[in-house]
Amino acid sequence: MKPAAQDSNFSIPSTMRAWVLDDPGQLRLTEKPVPQPGPAEVLIRIDAVAFCDGDIRIITRGPPALIQGGLPFNKNFTPGHEYMGTVVKLGAGVDEFEIGERVAVEVHFGCGRCERCRAGMYTSCINYGMNYGEHNKGHRANGFTTDGGFAEYAVNNVNTLVHVPDDIGDEEATLIVTAGTAMYALDTLGGLIAGQTVVVTGPGAIGLMGVAVAKALGANPVILTGTRDTRLNLGRRLGADHLININTENPVEAVKRVTKGKGAHYVLECSGNPNGLNDGMDMVMRGGKICLIGFANEPVPVDLGKLVRNHISVFGIRGEGKSATHRAAALVAMKRFEPKIIHTHTFKMEDLPTAFKYSRDRIDNAIKVVVKIRDN
Ligand SMILES: [Zn+2]
Ligand SMILES: [Zn+2]
Q1: Is the model's pLDDT at 6 over the cut of 90?
Q2: Do 182 and 156 share a structural domain?
Q3: At 3, is the pLDDT very low, low, confident or very high (cuts 50, 70, 90)?
Q4: Distance of CA 177 from the midpoint of ligand 1 (Å)
Q5: Shortest-distance ligand to the CA of residue 144
Q6: How far is CA 48 from the centre of its chain?
Q7: Which ligand lies nearest to the CA atom of residue 140 in the structure?
Q8: In a domain, 330, yes or no
Q9: Which pLDDT value is given to residue 375?
Q10: Pair 209, 304 in one domain
Q11: pLDDT single digits (tens) 143-185
């Protein structure tokens, strides 16, 4: 048993401030009870949380959030999933983390009992959202199916936490999970990319982290395509060897030029462009692999004949499975790249709806917008 004195370093109130989602697009600041950690869980005092495209989808449209089997609106649900903070209370039996330790999170804690969870694919848990009433299979994805990080405290399973070294700032630590998604994409493509060509299409947050992780793992060359020079230049700072502005050069021809006509080994499609997969198939060499991270909201035509004839493999991934966030965190701790390069704006907790607007509308060239829940 942990001595009770462990809890005394931090005074934990009984209620906390939390943003909740009312109607679509409507966030409201309210008071909620501070949640209590169960076995294998800790209570985190949230210090900072980043906005992600997933949050914008949830707040404006609902899915992929799933609360009590349905849409997340008007259910006292707190979104936010890219957060970091300080461990302030340990659940029964927890010795993996200490009170006062700084941690970042990965989003998904699957049910732990389905076939996918057992294989490490907990972001594709068969029991996604099953955590209520008679449907309680123990699934948690904070900010998607359980309360998330737009609040002062959250409960996390120990498996969803990574240690944050002291020389990594709060804002930067919120971006580790973004790098985790990029890592999971490269894992899914096979993981051994040293000396191989990786094309990243779309310099959004995940695309830019895709560049950084691919380079840190030895990919060479790394080619980044996009439309905004400001973002492409951030890609350069994160390790891209070639930048292609698709407004001035055909990206397929550019990839062929860089690879001396051969094509790339891998494409990470992060643009969500409706033609992204077709372009990707023209960028990879025969037998190449494409991972789709971005996607269009509508069905799109695909040249399947080209895919089959050229033995191209296509993967869709969700989130950050197989502990990819832990490996991404290791690269960040080793300073192989600096996620803070994509952090552009910081707001206070009270100004969270403004942070939402900056992120959604890309005001002032926003990429990663962070909300400091706690003022240092
Ligand atoms: Zn996210
Ligand atoms: Zn599961």
Answers
A1: no
A2: no
A3: very low
A4: 7
A5: 1
A6: 15
A7: 2
A8: no
A9: 81
A10: yes
A11: 999 999 999 999 999 999 999 999 999 999 999 999 999 999 9
Distance 125 CA to ligand 2 centre (A): 4
Domain count, the chain: 2
Q: Note the ligand closest to the C-alpha atom of 52.
A: 1
Per-chain residues with Cβ under 5 A from ion ligand 1: 52, 54
pLDDT of residue 244: 98
| Residue 276 counted as domain residue | yes
Residue 358 CA, ligand 1 centroid: distance in Å: 16
CA of 206 to the centre of ligand 1 (A): 9
Q: Give the CATH number, domain containing residue 231.
A: 3.40.50.720
Q: Which ligand is nearest to the CA of 55?
A: 1
Same domain, 252 and 362: no
What pLDDT digit, counting tens, does each position of 257-292 carry?
999 999 999 999 999 999 999 999 999 999 999 999
Is residue 160 domain-shared with residue 51, that is, in the same domain? yes
Q: Which two three-digit tokens encode residue 98?
A: 């200490």
b/e string for 130-167 if b means 16 or more Cβ within 10 A?
A: bbeeeeebebbbbbbbbbbbbbbbbbbbbbbbbbbeee
Distance CA 163, CA 296 (A): 35
Q: What is the CB neighbour count within 10 angstroms for residue 210?
A: 35
Rounded to the nearest 10 degrees, the angle between the axes of helix 205-216 and helix 324-333 is 70
The rounded distance, in Å, linking the Cα atoms of 336 and 203 is 19
Q: Any idea which ligand is nearest the CA of 113?
A: 2
- Residue pair 287/311 in contact (Cβ under 8 Å)? The answer is yes
CA of 204 to the centre of ligand 1 (A): 12
Dist. CA 106 → ligand 1 center (Å)? 9
State the residue range of the domain holding 308: 178-316
Note the ligand closest to the C-alpha atom of 120.
2
Ligand number with the minimum distance to the CA of 115: 2
**Closest ligand to the CA of 123:** 2
Residues 157 and 199 in one domain: no
| 109 Cα to the center of ligand 2, angstroms | 8
